[in-house]
Amino acid sequence: MTIGIGVIGYGYWGPNLVRNFMSTAHVRVVGIAERRADVRASLAQSAPAISVFESEEELIARDDIDAVVIATPVSTHYPLAKAALAKGKHVLVEKPLASSSAEVEDLIAHAEKGGRVLMVDHTFLFTGAVQTMTQLVRRGELGDVCYIDSTRVNLGLFQPDVNCLWDLAPHDLSIIDQLIGSDIVSINATGYGHIDPMRPDMVFLTLHYANKQVAHFNLSWMSPVKVRRFTVGGTKKMLVWDDLDQDQKIKIYDHGIEFQQEDQRTTILPEYRIGDIYSPLVSRKEALKGVAEHFIQVIRGEAQSTMDGQRGLRVVRILEAAQTELDRNLQIVARKRQAVLQGATN
Fold first, then answer.
1. Is the pTM of the predicted complex or chain greater than 0.85?
2. Which residues contact 250 (CB under 8 A, 6 or more apart)?
3. How far apart are CA 237 and CA 207, in angstroms?
C-alpha cells in the first residue's frame, strides 16, 4: 500500500520533510501547499512531479492524499490538523502539537473517532544519541536518574507567534518524557525578553518530580554561540550528550558521589568517585528519516506510535503550566523594576 503525502508549509522545516518522505518506502509525495508565490514558482521548476497549491484547503481536499504533514506556525497547527482529520487524513504535526491542551485533546478525540493516526514530530526521539541514552537509562547503567540539565541556546531563530519556551522546550520535554517515568510536582520558570518584556527570548525552567528528580533547562535565542548539551546524572554514572560534537556525541563518566550511612558519618564531606570515561557508538542515521519511516509504519499498522497525541498532550500541558509560572514571575519583575525606577525619580 502506497501512502500519498501532502505537506503544508515549505519554509524552514518543510524542505527537510519533503526530502525525507520522498526517500521513504511506500510513499509518494503528492502535493505541497505554500502561500508564498515565489516559493511555489521555484517548486514548480525544481519538483514538477509534485502538485503545488496556494491554499491548504485544496491540498487537504485531494483524494489521492492519504496523510497530511503540517510544518507551519504553531498558531495554525490546530485548525489545519482538525481540517485534515475531518477529511479522513492521517496527520503528522510539527512540534508542539497545538497551542493549548484543550486543542490537543480535541484533535485526539477527532483522530480516535475517525480511526486516523495523529502524531507530533518530536524529531530528537529518533536521533541515535537519544535512542542510545534511552537504552542506557532503561538498562539501569546509570543507576537511578537524579537530575537532568539541558542547555539549548543559539542566536535566533525568533519565531513569529511563540516565545522561546514554546519553540525550544518541546525538544527536551519529549526526551525527558521518555526518560523519567514520574509525575511533576512543581514547576519554576523565569526569563527575560530583550524585545518584548512579556515575550521572553531567554527562559530558565526547572521541573521537580515526585521521585526526587529534578530537570533544569537553559533556553535562549540570544546566545552568541550555539550549544546543545544534555546531562543526565545517575547514582552509578553520569552522561553528557553534546549534539554538536560529531565524533563523540555521548560521553559516559564513571563518576559519582558516595555518602556513608548517616550513623557512620564522621565528616560532612562525601567521598568522590572518579573512574573511566567512554563514548559509545551512536547511530548517524538522520533523525527526520526515522520520523518519516515511523509515521508510515504506524499508518500501515506495522508499528505502535511513539509520538502519538497523548505524548504531545503531556508536553503541551507542561508548557502551559510553565507559561503560567513564567508570566507570573515576569509580572513580579516588571512591578519591582517599575517601583525602583519610580523611586529613583522621586
1. yes
2. 129, 132, 133, 239, 240, 241, 279, 280, 282
3. 21
For 344, the grid coordinates are 529613583
Q: Using CA atoms, how far apart are residues 123 and 294, in angstroms rounded to an integer?
A: 11
CATH T-level fold of 125-285: Dihydrodipicolinate Reductase; domain 2 (3.30.360)
Tell me the one-letter amino acid at 95.
K
3-state secondary structure of 241: strand
- Is the sign of the CA dihedral 123, 118, 310, 96 positive or negative? positive
> Which fold is adopted by the domain 3-121?
Rossmann fold (3.40.50)
pLDDT in tens, the chain (346 residues): 899 999 999 999 999 999 999 999 999 999 999 999 999 999 989 999 999 999 999 999 999 999 999 999 999 999 999 999 999 999 999 999 999 999 999 999 999 999 999 999 999 999 999 999 999 999 999 999 999 999 999 998 888 789 999 999 999 999 999 999 789 999 999 999 988 877 899 999 999 999 999 999 999 999 999 999 999 999 999 999 999 999 999 999 997 766 666 666 555 566 677 788 999 999 999 999 999 999 999 999 999 999 999 999 999 999 999 999 999 999 998 899 889 988 877 6
Distance (Å, rounded) from C-alpha 98 to C-alpha 95? 8
Q: Do residues 299 and 90 make contact, with C-beta atoms less than 8 angstroms apart?
A: yes
Task: Evaluate the CA torsion angle 61, 62, 66, 67 in order and state its sign.
Answer: negative
State which amino acid sits at residue 131.
Q
Alpha carbon distances (Å) from 277 to 140, 184, 228, 237, 251: 17, 31, 20, 10, 7
Say how far apart CA 29 and CA 49 lie, in whole Å: 9
Q: Which residues make up the CATH 3.40.50.720 domain(s) of the chain?
A: 3-121
Delimiting residues of CATH 3.30.360.10 domain(s) in the chain: 125-285
